[in-house]
Amino acid sequence: MQAETARHTVPGLSRAKKQSRLAGLVRELKRNRHYYILIGPYMLIFFTFTVIPVVVSMGLSFFYFNMLEFPRFVGWQNYTRLFLDDDIFIIALKNTFIFALITGPVSYLACFLFAWIINELSPKIRAFMTLVFYAPSISGNVFFIWLILFSGDSYGYLNGFLMRYGFILEPIQWLTNEKYILSIVIIVQLWLSLGTSFLAFIAGFQTIDKTLIEAGAVDGIKNRWQELWYITLPSMRPQLMFGAVMQITASFAVADISIALAGFPSVNYAAHTVVTHLMDYGTIRFEMGYASAIATVLFLIMIGTNLMTQKLLRKVGE
Amino acid sequence: MTYKLWSAFRIRRRLNRSFTVSFILFAFLGVFGCFSAIPLIYAVNNAFKPLDELFIFPPRIFVRNPTLDNFYDLVALMGNSWVPLSRYIANTLLITIIGTAGHILLASMAAYPLAKYRFPGSRTLFSIVVLSLMFSGHVTAIPNYMVMSWLGWINTHASIIVPSLAFSLGLFLMKQFMEQIPDALLEAAKIDGASEYRIYWSIVMPNVKPAWLTLMILQFPMLWGSDGGSFIYSENLKTLHYALGQISLGGIARAGVGAAVALILMIVPITLFVISQSNVIQTMASSGMKD
User: Across-strand partners of A63?
Assistant: First the structure.
């Protein structure tokens, strides 16, 4: 190996150099071929169903395409229509940001806070409480239970309860009244939101080096808050960043719950989100170019928010 | 010695919360625990309620006279339908088992070189995977449909199974977990003449069992709850989740049966989590994102 490099560094023609670099790359590829074979199957599927579709979607957003005719290039028209002519998209965008600004931070803090408290419990109770908080997020469609709770007639549990104790006289149409839909979807979304990041935080708390906490106490840390800020949070920073990504992505992608609770489309688009708008154009109206523009906007919002949050979280505990 | 003990005691005292604060915190945990658990407890109880209790007002969370009628009704109802219930269950099991096992296999195969070696493209590929955690599948829904139809996979189970094999969170967690395997172990195997594939299969895989279970617990509920989406339209290929949707559309008359199916749907992922919890937490400890 050494002899070879020595030979190539002999001053010579640039062509020979280029060739040797290419040869070096080929050799490098050959040497690592086992690794490429191992990652191959995964990457093939990953690129086919995730990476290439993102690129295709961005490309399609500049075309008019209805799945039947050949795509026609329209430039920025889809985007100008989206932001200037589509009132419903603006409603969807506003709702999505309200959702994300509430469910994102609240669920993130809830994951952290509950993990923090649970960490103080004995292992058996800890395991049980973890299950209690995590179970909703893996129990599939059980959120239909909330439909019964918020049912619009006087047999709906919430209505029944409020009427029985005289808070209201007539049943409230919880799921068809614009005033309440958004809040209800947010509550149910929060109920479901203690997922992967919650587990990551619990794990993070369990792996904190105990000697660090003792050392901190010797160095003059006065209370739990200082301990949290100067020791716990910095030690957990990797988990915090991972959790942030999970929660942010989930909070911008609210759609299934909105559809299950408020219908599709919801009354006066009160629970319409960017994702349901995308579904509307993609699976009902077949305006694929326009839907791709919506998807691209969603992609940029998600990536942008995530990268920004990552930057912020790097400052924790400094 | 006494001094040491005393100082340790003082540190603990100083950092322990007062009783009131602990009480408030645990009360807080209790209240939200109830908020989290009651809908699930209610769903479980519903499945065992006879019809008169299902519609009782004011409603009760706990069942008084538990009965299995709802499950018998479910079997009877599905026995009469064009597609028997067993078919939906078989479809769901097929998708879930192949999808989960395949995902664990492919993700760990890809994670091993990414975690342990540097080779041209390895860092770029992994950054793309991390970046893909930052957006949801909705973004790619439209091109995905076109890819499926181009591959001729519309209305086959492959359209659900294959994309789920390359779920990026699984690769990410597996790779982070594999980084803990000591290099010395791998080098020892190499000196003994083991090929990369053998190292992967006989040394790396047995050491990452907790990560298998984690990938399972993340992948399983997703596939188990899959309703076929826009890819599957033949009734005999549809999933249990879809059948549940159809049953609950039956409204009041089907409320009991619907509750029974809901119980079946939710109990499987929850049981799996109970079994694998400690392993999952162990894996999550390495889930962090480095700067």
Answer: A73
